[in-house]
Design goal:
Chain B: Residues 1-169 form the FAD-binding PCMH-type domain. Chain B: It comes from Neoroseomonas eburnea. Chain B: One of its GO terms (molecular function) is oxidoreductase activity. The complex is a heterodimer of chains A (167) and B (263). Chain A folds into 2 domains: 3-77, Beta-grasp domain (Ubiquitin-like (UB roll), Roll); 87-155, [2Fe-2S]-binding domain (DNA polymerase, domain 1, Orthogonal Bundle), CATH 1.10.150.120. Chain A has helices spanning 23-30, 87-94, 104-117, 124-130, 142-155, 161-166, and strands at 3-8, 11-16, 49-52, 55-58, 71-73. In chain A, a hairpin with a 2-residue loop joins β1 (3-8) and β2 (11-16). Chain A has 6 helices and 5 strands. The relative contact order of chain A is 0.15. Chain A has a 5-stranded mixed β-sheet with strand order 2-1-5-3-4, with helices on both faces. In chain A, 34% of the residues lie in helices and 14% in strands. Chain B has 263 residues and is an alpha+beta fold. Among the domains of chain B are: 1-49, Uridine Diphospho-n-acetylenolpyruvylglucosamine Reductase, domain 2 (2-Layer Sandwich); 169-262, Enolase-like, domain 1 (2-Layer Sandwich), CATH 3.30.390. Chain B contains 12 helices and 14 strands. In chain B, the strands form 4 sheets. A 5-stranded antiparallel β-sheet of chain B has the order 4-5-10-6-7. In chain B, strands 11-12-13-14 form a 4-stranded antiparallel β-sheet, sandwiched between helices. In chain B, strands 1-3-2 form a 3-stranded parallel β-sheet, with no helix packed on it. The termini of chain B are far apart. Classes of the chains: A alpha+beta (167), B alpha+beta (263). At the A-B interface, β4 and α3 of A face α2 and α6 of B. The complex binds flavin-adenine dinucleotide and FE2/S2 (inorganic) cluster (FES) (2 copies). One FE2/S2 (inorganic) cluster is lined by residues 98-104, 136-139 of chain A.
Chain lengths: 167, 263
């Protein structure tokens, strides 16, 4: 069986997998990182989005063997060890950007990639287009868009509404 | 998914050898192949992962053409300064394929070899009169796309790069299915050294050239010139997303938008 070595959330793992093992299966079933979800079998919902070498990717449409040697970040890797949430997670909480939470890990991972790629800021339209690969079936997108806009300010070091509200 | 052996060759020559096995299949970005394998639509004995082959990567300007390696991902075409400067319509097209995550993995070689009737790139390849480079030869776009999911590639032949002649101007417009984001009908128009070319994707079983629109634009390059050209519905696709008549109507609408985009 093929062997893969990859770094997940800063920790190096080596695992035996089948050729057909998907990255999401390796993450959930072998490494027990069940924050990454599977919401479809057509590569359309985005519940499975993780970062591979800093880029958002659907882990349900990537073979584990294809991630050999890669740096992978999952939703579990975002908060600080003391439990402080990543600004994107904090904004999702603050803006009520989730209901059932099923789509949330993928939404957060896609959103962080989107914000990082646009240091000059994002319009509402850009945020909506940036989320084309993520489906939410219960919250609706309005609060998700607001959360991402707020988190973008925090991530780029500008004073944000969230910070102002907390003062 | 059925299991398969996995190979990751470092050269085109090694990949071609591995693909001599008739049950082996190439994989690039996997964003077409893996969803198909999940549904057990195919049972390859082995997957030959092309992603480690350096000679399939990169975007270069060679003379009056842009040569794009088969492994180049959609995001790389969309953000390439070279493509944006020389063929902005191609960068625009790449930036509107699927979604961000699809663009982060999907490749030009995978898309063009697959020749999905609803894929984007085949319209640019045919519309610009590109040349397809393979592991054994060069094929003109006009001879490459043979039918639904069918190309001139032999089973063990690898698409290595695509050479796009830089046009005087070009534009692309598509109507996408709001759920799948695949093309319902799209039109790529180009004014090239070899004349005006108009390619239609999404509407029929395979990308095709629209001769009446080419003639109209050659006589008068303007939105009005294509506005009066009707596409026959006869051989177009009809499915739950739209009838052949609807797609035929869209072809004229998209042609007008494509010419407007080209300027
Ligand atoms: C949710 C979703 C939405 C999408 N939306 C769109 C869209 O709007 N427009 C669009 O055009 N596409 C769309 N796609 C398809 C996407 O662009 C694919 O990435 C692309 O069509 C195939 O590229 P790939 O590298 O993923 O190919 P793979 O899946 O790796 O391979 C596809 C096929 O080509 C063969 N192949 C791959 N590389 C080569 C090569 N170099 N030489 C010879 N054969 C090769 C493989 O054997 C396989 O049969 C979408 C995909 C998904 C999952
Ligand atoms: S699980 Fe739906 S896109 Fe990956
Ligand atoms: S929060 Fe339930 S699917 Fe998005």
């Amino acid at each position: 069986m093929p062997q893969v070595t990859l770094t997940v959330n800063g920790q190096t793992h080596t695992a035996e997998v089948e050729g057909r093992t998907l990255l999401v299966e390796l993450l959930r079933e072998k490494l027990r990182l069940t924050g990454t979800h599977v919401g479809c079998d057509t590569s359309q919902c985005g519940a499975c989005v993780v970062h591979i070498n800093g880029e958002s990717v659907k882990s349900c449409t990537t073979l584990a063997v294809m991630a050999d040697g890669a740096q992978v970040t999952t939703i579990e890797g975002l908060a600080k060890p003391d439990g402080t949430l990543h600004p994107m997670q904090e904004a999702f909480r603050e803006y009520h950007a989730l209901q059932c939470g099923f789509c949330t890990p993928g939404m957060v991972m896609s959103a962080i990639d989107l914000v990082q790629k646009n240091p000059g800021g994002l319009t509402e339209q850009q945020i909506r287009e940036g989320l084309e690969g993520n489906l939410c079936r219960c919250t609706g997108y309005h609060n998700i868009v607001k959360a991402i806009a707020a988190a973008a300010e925090v991530m780029h070091g500008r004073r944000s509404e969230i910070a102002r509200a907390a003062e | 998914m059925y299991d398969f052996a996995y190979h990751k060759p470092a050269t085109v020559a090694d990949a071609v050898k591995l693909l001599a096995d008739p049950d082996a299949k190439a994989i690039s970005g996997g964003h077409t192949l893996l969803p198909a394998l999940k549904h057990r639509l195919n049972k390859p004995s082995a997957l030959v992962d092309l992603s480690g082959i350096a000679e399939l990567k990169g975007i270069r300007k060679v003379g009056n053409a842009i040569v794009i390696g088969a492994l180049t991902r959609h995001v790389e075409v969309a953000t390439s300064a070279e493509v944006k400067a020389a063929i902005p319509a191609l960068a625009y097209m790449a930036d509107h394929i699927g979604d961000v995550q699809v663009r982060n993995r999907g490749t030009m070689g995978g898309s063009v070899s697959n020749n999905d009737p609803a894929a984007d790139y085949p319209a640019a390849v045919l519309g610009l009169g590109a040349t397809i480079h393979t592991s054994s030869r060069k094929i003109a776009a006009d001879d490459f796309f043979l039918g639904m999911f069918t190309t001139a590639l032999e089973p063990s032949e690898i698409l290595t790069a695509i050479e796009f002649p830089i046009p005087e101007k070009a534009g692309y417009a598509k109507m996408k299915n709001p759920a799948s984001r695949y093309v319902m009908a799209g039109v790529f128009v180009a004014k090239t050294a070899g004349g005006v070319r108009v390619a239609v994707n999404g509407a029929g079983p395979c990308v095709f050239r629209q001769a009446d629109m080419e003639a109209a634009l050659a006589a008068n390059w303007s939105v009005d010139a294509v506005a009066g050209v009707k596409q026959a519905a006869d051989d177009l696709n009809s499915d739950i997303h739209g009838s052949a008549e609807y797609r035929a109507h869209l072809v004229t609408v998209m042609a007008k938008r494509a010419v407007a985009a080209a300027g």
